[in-house]
Amino acid sequence: MESINQKIAAIIHHFHLNNYAFSKRIGVTGTTIDSIVNGRPQANGTRKKTKPGYDVLSSIINEFDINPDYLFGKSSIMLKADLPKNPTYSGMPKIIASSNDDIENIIYVPAKARAGYLNGYGDPEFMESLPNFHMPQLSNGTFRCFEVQGNSMLSTFYDGDFVFGTYVEDLKDLRDGRVYLVVSKNDGIVLKRVINRIKEEGSLLLKSDNQDGNYPDFNIPVEDILEIWYVTMYASKQMPEPSDVNDKLQDLEHKIANLEHLIPKN
Question: Do residues 13 and 133 share a domain?
């Protein structure tokens, strides 16, 4: 990891300045900057670099609009202007449904309504056209139900399954490896495992559970995100057989075959 002295040298180089010109910009002497970047000569012939003080660092940040996290090794992005834009993500869904008793209902988005949802998630008339219902088990938060479409999450979710998600109010709450339903401008509605890279890269990395090679990972920029729902429950049409049923049937068939072999033939 680069030291803070090396970071300051990189800033000087980025703006095509020498130590003296840089020092004048931030209101210190050229000797001060030279001691930070190159070090002070020592009696044994070596050079010892001076650690910059608070005033020097503050002047550098303000004069050159530097990202403070860059100086302290928490980010590789030097300039504030190059940082990802602040998300415009809303902390609440635009439309919710409620019963006559003012109890919040769950809006159901079937597969055939996905395309319309992308444009109509904030349209009261469209959202009222979707079915909605109440589930006592899902009452702490705002929930939505989506029908699974496709096989990208196969082994976990199947085409036609129903996933129930609670609205993510703050993108900082996204946790790596969890399953979310992401609604975005360019990619529509996708059900994926999410790796949160907003702080480092300004995007989310989306991964599929189906590893057959047809569903590569991809990124969604934070500014494209419209809604995110954390999947907390699902209902499946798949009814798996008990794992030992086939083994028991085969064992029974072998026993019958053995009995037939032991019975004398007339």
Answer: no
Counting Cα atoms < 13 Å in the Cβ hemisphere of 178 gives 17
In a domain, 87, yes or no: no
What is the rounded distance in angstroms from the CA atom of residue 104 to the CA atom of residue 144? 11
Question: Is 265 a member of any domain?
Answer: no
DSSP secondary structure string for all residues of the chain: ---HHHHHHHHHHHTT--HHHHHHHHTS-HHHHHHHHT-EE-TTS-EEPPPP-HHHHHHHHHHHTB-HHHHTTS-S--BGGGSPPPP---SS-S--EE-TTSPEEEEEE-GGGHHHHHHHTT-HHHHHTS-EE--TTS-SS-EEEEE--SSTTTTT--TT-EEEEEE-S-GGG--TT-EEEEEETTTEEEEEEEEEEHHHHSEEEEE-S--SSSS--EEEEGGGEEEEEEEEEEE-S--PPPTTHHHHHHHHHHHHHHHHHHSPP-
Same domain, 73 and 27: yes
Q: Are residues 140 and 204 in the same domain?
A: yes
Q: For position 157, which CATH number holds?
A: 2.10.109.10
Number of domains within the chain: 2
Q: Whole domain around residue 192: which residue ranges?
A: 97-235
pTM: 0.60
Pair of tokens at residue 80: 């504030």
**pLDDT tens digits along 145-155:** 999 999 999 98
Q: Are 122 and 226 contacting, i.e. CB atoms less than 8 angstroms apart?
A: no
What pLDDT is recorded for position 34?
93
> Based on the domain organization, do 182 and 149 belong to the same domain?
yes
Give every residue of the chain whose pLDDT is below 50, as ranges: none
pLDDT digits (tens, 9 = 90+) for 163-182: 999 999 999 899 999 999 99
